[in-house]
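During the second year of the project, the team shifted from modelling isolated chains to modelling whole assemblies. The rationale, set out in the original proposal, was that interfaces cannot be judged from single-chain predictions alone. As a representative example for this report, we include one of the complexes processed in the last quarter. Its constituent sequences, exactly as entered into the pipeline, are reproduced here:
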Amino acid sequence: MSKEEFEFLFSKYFEDVRRYVFYRSGDGDVATDIAQDTFLRIWEKQMIIEMKTARNLLFKIAGDLYITRYHREQLAFKFFDTYEPNKDNLTPEDQLNYEDLKNAYEKALASMSEKQRVVFLMSRVDELKYKEIAERLGLSVKAIEKRMSQALEHLKKQLKEKINHIVLFFLGYSPFRLTANRKK
Amino acid sequence: MKENNEHNDMGTVDRHSKSFLSNGTFRWSKSEAKAWSEVKAQLKSPQSGKIIRVNFKMRLVAATVIVLMALGAFLRFYSVTEATPPGVHKMVMLPDGSTVELNAMSTLKYHPYWWHFKRIVSFEGEGYFKVERGRKFLVQSDKGKTQVIGTSFNIYSRDTAYQVTCLTGQVKVTSGRKESVFLNPGSKAEVGNDGEIKVWRHIETDSVISWTKNVFVFRKTPIKDVFREIERQYGITIQTNFNSKATYTGKFTKEQNVEDILGYICPAVGLKYEKKTSSLYIVTLENE
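Output from the structure prediction step:
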């Protein structure tokens, strides 16, 4: 692998790898460290990397590094230290309750299983389609759909109180629309 | 209606999480550019290992080890060379009290500070060894080596010849091709050019070491070898412009001068000599 190839891979995939680890760990600094080490590793080992499978491979290495280094430690999940929601998207009422909501989401994400969380955040934050998520994680679209609906189920339970008044708020005008939960 | 509510709940969570989580901003403590520059800095030295912090104690240990190793190497490899010029005999005392009497034009090399661990000498020429009892004593020459425990013996290692005569004790002689024999007192071994060892037993050993008393004894010795010995003992040059397979049996002592010796050796084998300078003699056939 030449330095140019390496730099190309880095600029193309560093952010993806970092986010992937961030979604798993909920710790921005850990994510940065792991992502850097992932790239150093493919350089040191001079791995032969095909562009087609590069991202999958990088995710795999990053995941392994993360597990060997941090799995035993209970990392504090602090998603919103690194990620700041866009307040402009929110309804006036949500803006009022912003801190409250943020804490509720933080707790809900922290207690979600890692597998569901990665899928969920890729869908919400990165706004990827299920097919794209499936490609990146090397899973089937079906598996993504399943994890996604589990994640939403979990979120619903966790956010119940916070969301009840939202439900009332929405009931008035939101039409019957389902995107994720087709099973029910 | 209840089911509808459930559906609505799910839809609400779905929508709400979309609006709450999308289009936000990542506030990494390291920008991608910074992360890249850090990674790049580590690429330049891919072989550089981990930096080991060495504390004072470790430095001291390392320094001591290095000094000891240097000292060890010095003790191991420091050598003394004793060499005799033509016409001179010399007695060399080795660290354990063993002695070597060197005949003229002989060289002996040994490691004085390593002597306690290994008694080993390199040797060319002729010498009479008296070895104190102790560890294995090894004499290495070009064409063979002689191994002893404690004994006395004479080695003659010149030009193509390698002869060892054992006077007391027992010695082991090994040739270049790894053949070896044990010699008891009164035995003599000769290593041929092909590495084969010939042994004579019950020889008269006094004449072999008579050179240590400045008496030179020859028994059926090729005449040219006799002249070489005279050259060595008197530090002169003798040109031998003839072909002769004659041998000489007899002896001379160093008290005699060169002309006296040549005067009685040459006629005995049909040769004559001519003195050119005090250190150059020419020997030719008598009838030329």
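The radius of gyration of chain B is 40 Å. Chain B has a mean pLDDT of 85.
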